[in-house]
């Protein structure tokens, strides 16, 4: 193998070896659409707010659900999501 092919092969193997990289880390939007307008609060285990970036031009809000560990995108424009974020901000500032 020549040096270019070897370098390409090593790069490919290293990229393939990286596991657990989210879509956001790869430089794409995680959410393909706006997302859900409502999720029961008691079902939320984790909430992530991902700001706009050069790789993804929209604000993304992702919740992980209890029990199933399913991730869902939430619509940042919905009244429920805005109230949820405001409530969490007030709690964290106390």
From TrEMBL:
Gene3D superfamilies: 2.40.50.40
Keywords assigned by UniProt, alphabetized: Chemotaxis, Cytokine, Disulfide bond, Secreted, Signal
Record's subcellular location: Secreted
SUPFAM superfamilies hit by this protein: Interleukin 8-like chemokines (SSF54117)
One Gene Ontology term of the molecular function aspect: chemoattractant activity
PROSITE patterns per UniProt: SMALL_CYTOKINES_CXC
CDD domains named in the record: Chemokine_CXC
InterPro entries per UniProt: Chemokine_b/g/d, Chemokine_CXC, Chemokine_CXC_CS, Chemokine_IL8-like_dom, CXC_Chemokine_domain, Interleukin_8-like_sf
Domain named Chemokine interleukin-8-like: residues: 26-88
Residues of the signal peptide: 1-20
One Pfam family it belongs to: IL8
GO biological process: defense response; immune response
GO cellular component: a single term: extracellular space
Function: Ligand for cxcr3.2. Chemotactic for macrophages.
Listed PANTHER family: C-X-C MOTIF CHEMOKINE 11 (PTHR12015:SF191), SMALL INDUCIBLE CYTOKINE A (PTHR12015)
Family, similarity comment: Belongs to the intercrine alpha (chemokine CxC) family.
Protein name as it appears in the record: C-X-C motif chemokine
